[in-house]
């Protein structure tokens, strides 16, 4: 069953640029400068999205001199994927179940 925390996470990941950032971070740890280059967005846009992702627990930060690197937290994504897998399994198991209309 999806919780309100899961719903918030789905909302966070529902933004196309945030999803692109998460996809990029799944491949490697990057700083904001790299994400600006990869996405073509202005500097403030990835920074704002990274703040939202960090607050949601999707990414972690690692200071490195004057830069901050971001890495994906795979456990958060795996937990959400597990919830969706459980929903898909329940839908398969109850495919023939139908409530009668009054």
Q: What characteristics describe this protein?
A:
single chain; 102 residues; alpha+beta; 3-stranded antiparallel sheet; 61% helix
3D architecture notes:
This protein is α+β, with helices and mostly antiparallel strands and 102 residues long. Helix content is 61%, strand content 14%. It contains five helices and three strands. It has helices at residues 4-13, 16-27, 32-39, 44-55, 74-93, and strands spanning 30-31, 59-64, 67-72. A three-stranded antiparallel beta sheet has the order 1-3-2. A hairpin with a 2-residue loop joins β2 (59-64) and β3 (67-72). α3 packs across α4 (44-55). The longest helix has 20 residues, at 74-93.
How would you summarize what this structure contains?
By secondary structure, the protein is an alpha+beta fold. The protein is 61% helix and 14% strand.
Give the integer mean of the pLDDT values.
94
SSE class: alpha+beta
What does the overall shape look like? elongated
User: Helix and strand succession?
Assistant: HHEHHEEH
Please give the order of strands in the largest beta sheet.
1-3-2
* Rg measurement, Å: 18 Å
- Ranges where pLDDT stays below 50 over 5 or more residues in a row are none
Q: Share of helix among residues?
A: 55-70%
Multimerization state: single chain
In whole angstroms, the N-to-C terminal distance is 27 Å
Summarize the helices and strands and which ones pair or pack.
Layout: H1 4-13, H2 16-27, E1 30-31, H3 32-39, H4 44-55, E2 59-64, E3 67-72, H5 74-93
Antiparallel strand pairs: 1-3, 2-3
């Amino acid at each position: 069953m999806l919780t309100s925390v899961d719903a918030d996470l789905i909302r966070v990941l529902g933004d196309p640029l945030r999803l692109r950032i998460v996809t990029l971070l799944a491949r490697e740890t990057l700083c904001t400068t790299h994400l600006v280059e990869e996405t073509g967005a202005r500097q403030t846009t990835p920074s704002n999205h990274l703040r939202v992702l960090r607050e949601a627990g999707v990414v972690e930060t690692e200071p490195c001199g004057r830069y901050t690197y971001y890495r994906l937290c795979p456990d958060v994504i795996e937990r959400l994927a597990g919830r969706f897998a459980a929903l898909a399994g329940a839908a398969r198991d109850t495919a023939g179940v139908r409530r009668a209309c009054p």
